[in-house]
Description:
The protein has eleven helices and ten strands.
Amino acid sequence: MVLNYPRRLSEEQELLINTVNELNNKFGEKYWSDIDIDHEYPEEFVKEFTKMGLFKVPVPEEYDGAGLGITDAPLILEEINAYGGNSQPFHGQYYMSWLISKFGTEDQKRRLFKDLGNGKIRMQSMGLTEPDAGSNTPKISTFAEKHGDKYIINGQKIFTSRIEQSDYILIVARTRKYENVTKKTDGISLFLLGPEERKNIEFNRIKTMFNSQTYQLFLKDVEVSSEQLIGEENKGFSYLMHVLDPERILIASESIGDMRWFIEKSSEYASNRIVFDRPIGQNQGVQFPIADMYAKMLSVASLRDVASNLYDNNGNIKKIGELANSAKYLASEYAWQAANVAMDTFGGYGVAVDTGIERKFREARLYKVAPIANNLVLSYLGHNVLNMPKSY
Ligand SMILES: Cc1cc2nc3c(=O)[nH]c(=O)nc-3n(C[C@H](O)[C@H](O)[C@H](O)COP(=O)(O)OP(=O)(O)OC[C@H]3O[C@@H](n4cnc5c(N)ncnc54)[C@H](O)[C@@H]3O)c2cc1C
């Protein structure tokens, strides 16, 4: 059983959800539990996902894609998580495709989109975070120095996900040093590195508490051609907003999916587990936290929908930022609460690997810190929306 909720879906969205649920039913929770044990990439799932055309979703129609936007695509990821899966290993290709369709050149689109849709290539890795900058993104120091029609990139990245599972990687680099710009976000450029340049990046996988493919990268004199620049030099930060806001909406959707899974598991278990000769869910101390999570799930799903609608209707980017960040913040906090409610409901069985609760508990924790730490979301709302003094 999977938990559903009242919402207005178009026929196209219903179809999308049914398609992804065929896949969910085919793989089942055991698949996700098995790959969790050895921290393996969900290769078989991603192959089927591709075969079913689900990577064509963000590809524009003129390149043989479905051309769907932020109101539709996140529903796919939500559904995968609601069935006990984990969309984190492949969600990157969605926001990267949107970035290329908005800011890529005609040549980049032609070269990439056909093969992204049919799975010949993957583009699901973005190296932004750096060890010495952390949440202070503009302070990145990876530098791309221009030499004629080439750039030479030097620097380090941390927590770049899926480099081994990507043919194309987005590297965010400075083309003007932090010390030499008046506005901190100026002087940042985006480069799409292909299979050739990828060979020149050294990387180490970082062991994490859940199944994730994330790496430390070392870029030493990596040469890229100016054709690999996305958009204009030095303006990359403004383009990044078109990756980061959709990414926040995708992440919020995955957390909403996680909540649905935790609520379903908790309510089912609470109705069936008999202690003191009655179901534990008859006790309001057990029942109310689960019902509370359901109400919170409905509220944040609505907020996510407002954010995605505004994005797809070319709303004001600042307002989208406000809504997308708030949706990511609330959904990740609520999903973490729901994970703890499930742990409490299951008593000792919550930590038993076979129930799956501990796996999803570990997975749900990530989105409180990535792709942006929740304190930084609150700072953003405090400074940029509520005009309170800046802490940095
Ligand atoms: C599994 C995983 C996958 C990831 N994948 C990617 C990826 O693919 N690409 C990529 O670029 N990055 C990725 N990241 C990085 C992620 O985006 C960062 O970890 C995150 O942005 C936080 O940065 P940090 O870890 O350096 O924390 P820090 O910036 O060191 O912050 C540590 C703590 O201090 C708090 N803090 C810092 N400054 C302030 C302040 N001014 N006010 C209040 N609190 C503050 C933060 O909230 C946080 O709780 C990934 C991370 C993980 C764990």
